[in-house]
Amino acid sequence: MGFTVPDDTVLVADGGLATELEARGADLSDPLWSARLLIEAPHEIEAVHRAFFAAGAQFATTASYQASFEGFSARGVDAGTAEALLQRSVHLARAATGGAGQRWVAASIGPYGAARVDSSEYVGRYGLSVAQLAAWHQRRLEVLASAGADLLALETVPDLDEAEALVGLVRAADVPAWLCYTIDGTATRAGQSLEEAFAVASGVPQIVAVGVNCCAPSDVLPAIEIARAVTGKPVIVYPNSGEHWTCGGWNGPARFSPTLVPAWIAAGARIVGGCCRVGPADIAGVAAAVHEQT
């Protein structure tokens, strides 16, 4: 089946790809978000992957989070070219590894709400059935799974219905993946308990890790404990900076800190990184904290 989380090792995930692209001057004010640069400036994506690896990350998460066949079509990109662009996201991440060992490519499978470009990935409950969600995700997932990634990153999932759809596809494709919910406290963004949400992955060997991402750092510790208790699987956490997205911008103080990492590891986290507003310098701090603990 491919990638598994190594025993007795804590791995370092990357940070916010879009955050670093914007810090380098990229304009992501587009429905495709960072996937826009798969068309216009793929070298910039590869450069950011390399920056995170240089900072100590061991995963490159591809620029496919907000990419979809519908989104590309709205830009006049035909289905064949869209497929090639999805594959390019994986190839750029692979090139950035430089062939070094202990570096992996995680192909990002963002939620349906991300492609709607209306922030509904932070709400869930789209009005679609599990079967309809699976049908929407299937082609993109299959393309990314066959493009040479080490595993799929099912990330920022707000709703257990969408998790059921994605887990079913991963099981059918027999490819390794991690499953990460975006949460508010100890519930999914759609309001389901994390006990119920993580149970979707129980007994599914293709799901090699479960956890949370794009959430407040303060929500991480309780989620680790629930994920371990429900699934017994390795836990992955990569919260955002703690700032809040409102009115088209980030507000409030940043609360992400490498000083939080030892407690996450002690609670059972096996892969640790960051999401929105977490850059290479932050990941360097995470990597240092991981190395001090292991």
TrEMBL record:
Protein name: Homocysteine S-methyltransferase
Keyword Cytoplasm part of the UniProt annotation: no
GO biological process: methionine biosynthetic process; methylation; S-methylmethionine cycle
Keyword tags: Metal-binding, Methyltransferase, Transferase, Zinc
Binding site for Zn(2+): 214, 275-276
Top-level lineage group: Bacteria
Lineage of source species: Bacteria, Bacillati, Actinomycetota, Actinomycetes, Mycobacteriales
NCBIfam families: PRK09485.1
SUPFAM superfamilies: Homocysteine S-methyltransferase (SSF82282)
